[in-house]
Amino acid sequence: MRILAARDYDHMSRQAANIISAQVILKPDCVLGLATGSSPLGIYRQLIDWYQKGDINFSQVRTVNLDEYVGLGEDNDQSYIHFMRSNFFDHININQANTNVPCGTNPDTEAECSRYDQVIKNLGGIDLQLLGLGPNGHIGFNEPNEYFAMDTHKTPLTDATIQANRRFFEKEEDVPRYAYTMGIRNIMQAEKVLMIVSGKQKAAILKEAFLGPVTPKVPASILQIHKDFTLVADEEALSAFTHEEREKWNIE
Ligand code: F6R
After folding, report:
1. The pLDDT value given to residue 160
2. For 223, phi and psi rounded to 5 degrees?
3. DSSP per residue, 153-178
4. Does the annotation mark 146 as catalytic?
5. Which of 131, 197, 133 is nearest to 161 (CA)?
6. Each residue of 209-223: pLDDT tens digit?
7. Cβ-proximal residues to 113 (8 Å cutoff; 6+ apart), any chain
8. Residues contacting 104, CB < 8 A, separation 6+
């Protein structure tokens, strides 16, 4: 586990965008695992900027997104497929046929989950998976639980997640109650995992996830044992780490 400290959200976004950009330059047809939410917006803006300046080429890149709300399709502006197109895909030269998001409108849960596992398998696995950290320690929509769910599955969203996502919807009733999400095995099998975390409100859960025990009650904690895991966190998110903990993890 490698922990990089960033001054603030913009600095975190640039550092993470550098890592993604290096991946694309070194392997132009790489498979990027992508996330939605507030955390990666700065990364997507930075990558779009570099694309516009001619510094990065996405023409051969393939992508798989972590998750999608059950019931929301591409015509719904709160769906994750819509988020990805409007915040990233529509602004770069990626072949949209090479982008994948679980299909929220497929009512056949079993079929959709095994289809998505097969999509990841057919791509040859994920080279670099980008993750945000949920307020309750979730990754993708792998919510705190008694066990780690391995493969793509449909999951009820916890109250903490519904509350956290409430800001994107007009009314609380509009927040979907279920999501399709990659499982822990899908994420852990990625060659590299990159997590970004910003803000004071994530400080306690960040410390619990990476300095506490590995447990499905804090799903992100499993990343402590990933073979190539990089965390980029800003100073506010790292504010619960003590001086000794920073020294131990070589955080400058
Ligand atoms: C998004 C996802 C979620 C978010 C997490 C953090 O695709 O899978 O796990 O990464 O909820 O969200 P933000 O970045 O909005 O704080």
Report:
1. 86
2. -65, -20
3. EEEEPPHHHHHHHGGGSSSGGGS-SE
4. no
5. 133
6. 999 999 999 999 999
7. 151, 152, 153, 154, 180
8. 68, 69, 70, 71, 72, 73, 79, 80, 81, 179, 180
Ligand 1 contact, 38 CB (< 6 A): yes
Partners of residue 69 on adjacent β-strands: 179
Task: Report residue 241 as tokens.
Answer: 């780490």
Ligand 1 contacts CB of residue 36 (under 6 A): yes
Mean pLDDT of 91-117: 98
Regarding the beta carbon of 39 and ligand 1, being less than 6 Å apart is answered: yes
pLDDT for the residue 161? 87
Task: Identify whether 57 is a catalytic site residue.
Answer: no
The pLDDT assigned to 164 comes to 86
Taking residues 50-78, what's their average pLDDT?
97
Q: Taking 90 as the threshold, does the pLDDT of residue 228 lie above it?
A: yes
Question: Which two three-digit tokens encode residue 121?
Answer: 């398998």
